[in-house]
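Hi P.,

Sorry for the delay on this. The queue was packed all week, but I finally got your sequence through. Input first:
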Amino acid sequence: MNILFKSAVKNLIVFSTALFSTFTLAQSKLAIVIDDVGYHPKEDAAIFAMPREISVAIIPSAPYAQARNQEAKKQGRDILIHMPMQPINQTKIEEGGLHLGMSAEQVTNRVQKAKNIVSHAIGMNNHMGSAATADTPLMTHLMNALRAQHLFFLDSRTIGRSVAGKIAKEQGVRSLDRHIFLDDSNEFADVQRQFQAAIQYARKHGTAIAIGHPRKNTVAVLQQNLRHLPADIQLVGMGSLWRNERIVPPKPFILLFSDIPAPTSTAPYEPVPLLRGVPK
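Then the structure:
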């Protein structure tokens, strides 16, 4: 009997350890934000067919902004206001964007108008904005406006000397930085390489935030890779990162086995080895 008991305990430990390991693999987080949503129905539809953990950033002045806002909300997808902001190269930005030299009132009004259109947004990120995010007065006005609207900020990091994160912290606004751009190049191989870079970044740092756009090869790379996401990577929405939610693996469901043979169901009811228990 002691031998049977020890064997049962050994099998239980091996089984439960393997099962627990399976459930605790996913420890690194990958968040993907798709910018420039609201312009092209076909490309937008491909993005909205992807897992709802893919967040969307909607430009308020885009022709389908309100429709995408409602669609994303219905899916339970995290939404950002993709706010046009002044770049260094003076490229013309969309209507309703933020420019250097704006007053606090002007910034507040534009943020409010954007929120009225993208009403289900939980945060904002910058569209272009290499000049804007490096400007302390403008970022101070913006963070005050975001705090009043209870919005988070994602710095797309279009310039290395951005002060957005620093000002956000000073003003009590939660902010995060983009780590990887998926599609600076539209070539399939380049987008694929950047996706793998995001996976490696997540493994090294625990979290990776990647930004892409609703383009043909970006869609193709995401469709291909999200179906086979590594077991140690968990796809999450931006809201999960802003709320600093922890990955809580499900508790292992452990079945108790016995090596003691079970009796047969017909006379003379003789015990039969391996009728119950873990086969050797």
